[in-house]
Structures are given as structure tokens and as C-alpha cells.
Design a protein that fits this description.
The protein has 491 residues and is of the alpha+beta class. Helix content is 53%, strand content 11%. It is built from 21 helices and 11 strands. Strands 6, 7, 8, 9, 10 and 11 form a 6-stranded mixed beta sheet that branches. Strands 2-1-5-4-3 form a 5-stranded antiparallel beta sheet, sandwiched between helices. A hairpin with a 2-residue loop joins strand 3 and strand 4. 36% of the residues are buried. It comes from Streptomyces yokosukanensis. This is PucR C-terminal helix-turn-helix domain-containing protein. InterPro entries: CdaR-like_regulators, PucR_C-HTH_dom, PucR_C-HTH_sf.
Length: 491
């Protein structure tokens, strides 16, 4: 019995007892429900007899019970538990006459089964605690990415460490099979950091480290050799979603780096480049959602629709994992958003407009003064008019400068711009360029390395690239430098 318990616990011991005695041996709780199912009683007579034995044992407070009924003998003995753990009962049902050695053998087995059951019970409790803690940390991550900073702080207060005011976000990409091991290694090395398996990508880890000091560089040897690491700039906790996007773009640059890690290369933001006029335009575009009121209690309100739009623009179909909703729920919300805004979210142009409006709203830019034409509400600027601003043209040129450098093959920019004009679809792009789909992906991967931004895997910079291309298309030829004037398809 001790050998069986060391090899497998209560299951092998119960099977050994059943083979030795010919009885149906099982564990059950005080209500008669089997607690260990491998050889649970099958007949009604066996179950009824075991339940009667459990009741007799509880009511009379006996050390053991033996009952004979309908040609069966049932022996019930309690196992030893610990404080706070209700141990089960050991029951054996055998046809009469029962073997004379059965009661003594069962009594000897209770000591081994008690230790084995208590060890298994402890492991189950520890596993439930780990699952509960992992779920709580993932919930905190969801809240931070969706902008609910106060709720995230309250929940995180029950765990350790506390969430800092300034954070750096790290996205670590590695084999999914070693993700649990990486979490343990990082927990030992990265003191004061939050480490959560990414709910969107199975091969990613999300690490939230304090951003007040220097960036973390003391990675475990196995992590540095087998994974890629993207690091964001130091951002306020309320801008964790921005930090995540930065780390994700840095990860795209790390894949092409020999060091296998990269920091985010900051660039100008389009919303800030446009200025206050973008705030008035964004407010007008998002107004139908902000004023939306749910007709039924189960319908999404304006806040849920805005969160869904932001998540879908960042993660596409993986927004279901980000928001913890069903794909049908996501589809219904997207339909509602399109109807309210009058947009077709299958078109990259409409996606880019909505993404810019949401980002402008998150930046909390102030609208122009009331004396301004845009602020007076008479003639709000269109998106094309905003993209015609001189400072936007300079921003657009900077977006494409890495892929239009003299040492970069012209086919890289040609593939990128064609892909953007065809709503970021690989198949039509391959047809338009008369190349294979794999060749399109290879050229776009080269563009990712040059831009140091993610293109093929969301969250990507695709919306910014489309807006930059549109701005260059709208600009006067005299305002576009010579090396940008050759972008394929430019009007």
C-alpha cells in the first residue's frame, strides 16, 4: 500500500485494495457521494448501503460501521483529516460472506489513504489558488488596457506588488510550451514587476515593471536566448494601453536584431501634429456613439461600444479574448458601431479615421477657441482637410522615410503602398504586383524591420501608415520631396 501511494496516491491504493479483496472500494463524503470515482458503486443497492453506513457513522459517532443487507456487506471507516479539511470516508461493499481479513485490511489502509488524500487535497487547493491569482492578474491587465485604472488599482491592492504610477511595458515572445517556466524565472529576477500571460497571444508574456528607474536588463539566460523582448517607454499607469502598443512595435524591431530585444523608437503622434482642430473633428465623428443610449439592459452602452471599437482596431478578431466576449457579441457591437457612425469598418480608410478619432479623444486635446471657424461649429474640417496641414505633411514623410531610403529596394515601398491601398489584403496585393502571397509577406516583414513597427500582427501601425500615405497623396507635388514623389500610385 505504501508503494502504491508513493507512485500514484489514493487511486492506486484503492485499486490495490479492490484487487486484493474483490470488494468495490471507494472514497465518499458524508452525503454518500463518491469522492474518488475510479471504482464508484454502480448498483442502487451498493449506493444505498454505503449511504446508510455514512449516516450511521455520523449519527452514532462511531469509529467504523459494518452493515449486512440484501446479500451485501458494507464497511465504512473515516479517514484522518486536518483542521479545515473534511476528510472523506473509506467504504467497501462486498458480497456476503465478507472475507475475515477485510476489516483489518481496511483499517490499516486508512492511515496511508489519509496521508495521500491530504497531500492531494493540499495540491488541489494550491492549484485553485494559482488559478485564482492568475485570473485576478489577468483581470487587472484587462482593466488597465481598457483604461479602468482606478478599478485596476483597487483589485491589485489585494495582491503584491502594488501598481506603480509610472510603468514600462514589456512584451516577451517565446514558445508557448515554456511560458509557465518563463513566468517563474521572471518572477525571481524582475522584482516589483507584474508578469501575466498575454490573454490575446499564446506565445506572449506581458510584464509591467516600475518605470521610475532604469530599464530592466538582467534577463534570465534562457529567456535571452530563446525569446524576443520589446520594451516601451516609461508611461503613466493610465496609459498602459499605449505602452503595450509601443512594446509590441519594439518587439517587431527585436525580431530583426541580433540582441533579440529592442526599445520603442518614439516618433511624433499624428493627433498632436494636427493640433486642436483634430479634437473638434474627432468629437463630431464620435458624437453618435457618445450620445447613444442602450434600449435594453443587455445592450451595450456608449462606453462599451467605444471600448469595443478601440479593441477591435487594435486586435481585430482577437478582441474577443481581449474583451472576454463571444464572437457573436463582438459582431453585433461592430454592426451597431457602423450603423451609428455611418462607416464601413471593412475599409481601411474608415478604420484609420475611427482609430485617429479614438486616439485624439484619448489624448484629451482641447478644441479650438470659439472664435475659430472650426470651433464655432459652422464648418468643421474634414479628414482630408486636416491631412493637408503642412505639419501633417512633414509627419507623413517621416513615416515613409525608412522604406524610401536609397539603400532600400524600391519593391519594398511599392509592396507596402499597394498593400495599404488594397485595404491590407495579401491576396489582392499579390495579384496586383504579379508576385506570390509569401513574397508579399516577406516584403512587409522587411518593412516592419525598417519602420520598427508591427504591420502584419495587431496591434499594428497600419492605420498611421494609411493616413500618412493619404496625406502624401493629397499634398501638392511641389511640397513632396523627390524621393517621396515616386511612391507607387500617388495621385
Amino acid at each position: 500500500m505504501q508503494r502504491a501511494a508513493r507512485k500514484g496516491g489514493t487511486g492506486p491504493v484503492l485499486r490495490w485494495l479492490a484487487g486484493r479483496t474483490g470488494a468495490t472500494v471507494f472514497l465518499m463524503n458524508s452525503a454518500g457521494t463518491p469522492a474518488h470515482p475510479p471504482r464508484a458503486p454502480r448498483g442502487d443497492a451498493e449506493r444505498g448501503l454505503a449511504l446508510r453506513g455514512a449516516r450511521e457513522l455520523a449519527e452514532r459517532r462511531l469509529g467504523s460501521v459494518a452493515i449486512d443487507q440484501d446479500g451485501l456487506t458494507c464497511i465504512v471507516l473515516p479517514l484522518d483529516g486536518s483542521r479545515g479539511a473534511a476528510a472523506p470516508l473509506l467504504a467497501a461493499v462486498v458480497p456476503r460472506p465478507a472475507p475475515p481479513e477485510l476489516p483489518l485490511l481496511l483499517a490499516d489502509a486508512t492511515s496511508v489513504l489519509s496521508v495521500s488524500w491530504l497531500a492531494e487535497h493540499t495540491r488541489r487547493k494550491q492549484r485553485r489558488l494559482r488559478i485564482a491569482e492568475a485570473g485576478t492578474r489577468e483581470a487587472v491587465l484587462h482593466l488597465l488596457l481598457n483604461g479602468h485604472t482606478s478599478a485596476a488599482r483597487q483589485i491589485a491592492g489585494a495582491l503584491r506588488p502594488a501598481l506603480p504610477a509610472m510603468v514600462r511595458v514589456y512584451v516577451i515572445e517565446g514558445p508557448p510550451r515554456v511560458r509557465a517556466q518563463l513566468v517563474e524565472e521572471l518572477t525571481d529576477v524582475a522584482e516589483g514587476a507584474w508578469i501575466v500571460p498575454c490573454p490575446v497571444y499564446a506565445d506572449h508574456l506581458f510584464m509591467l515593471a516600475p518605470g521610475d528607474g532604469a530599464p530592466a536588463r538582467a534577463w534570465p539566460p534562457g529567456l535571452a536566448a530563446a525569446c524576443w523582448i520589446g520594451e516601451s517607454s516609461a508611461v503613466p499607469l493610465r496609459e498602459t494601453a499605449t505602452g503595450y502598443a509601443q512594446a509590441f512595435h519594439a518587439l517587431a524591431a527585436a525580431r530583426g536584431s541580433s540582441e533579440r530585444q529592442a526599445s520603442f523608437a518614439a516618433g511624433p503622434d499624428l493627433a498632436l501634429a494636427i493640433g486642436p482642430a483634430a479634437a473638434a473633428w474627432a468629437e463630431a465623428l464620435l458624437s453618435p456613439i457618445r450620445t447613444h443610449r442602450a434600449r435594453r439592459a443587455q445592450d451595450p452602452d456608449s462606453a462599451e461600444l467605444l471600448a469595443t471599437a478601440a479593441s477591435w482596431l487594435s486586435f481585430c478578431s482577437r478582441a474577443t479574448a481581449h474583451l472576454n466576449i463571444h464572437r457573436n457579441t463582438l459582431s453585433a457591437r461592430l454592426t451597431c458601431i457602423q450603423e451609428l457612425l455611418g462607416l464601413d469598418l471593412h475599409r481601411l480608410a474608415d478604420q484609420a479615421a475611427l482609430a485617429l478619432a479614438l486616439r485624439t479623444s484619448a489624448a484629451e486635446l482641447r478644441p479650438p477657441p470659439e472664435g475659430d471657424a472650426a470651433g464655432a461649429g459652422e464648418t468643421l474640417p474634414t479628414l482630408d482637410e486636416l491631412l493637408l496641414l503642412p505639419r501633417v505633411g512633414a509627419w507623413a514623410q517621416q513615416q515613409f522615410r525608412p522604406v524610401t531610403a536609397p539603400d532600400v529596394p524600391a519593391c519594398v515601398a511599392e509592396t507596402l503602398t499597394t498593400w495599404l491601398r488594397l485595404d491590407a489584403r495579401i491576396g489582392p496585393t499579390a495579384t496586383a504586383l504579379s508576385i506570390s502571397a509569401s513574397a508579399v509577406r516577406k516584403r512587409l516583414t522587411r518593412s516592419e524591420a525598417l519602420l520598427e513597427r508591427s504591420l502584419l500582427r495587431p496591434p499594428s501601425v497600419i492605420h498611421d501608415q494609411w493616413l500618412a500615405l493619404r496625406a502624401l497623396d493629397l499634398a501638392e507635388p511641389t511640397e513632396v520631396p523627390r524621393h517621396f514623389a515616386g511612391l507607387p500610385g500617388r495621385a
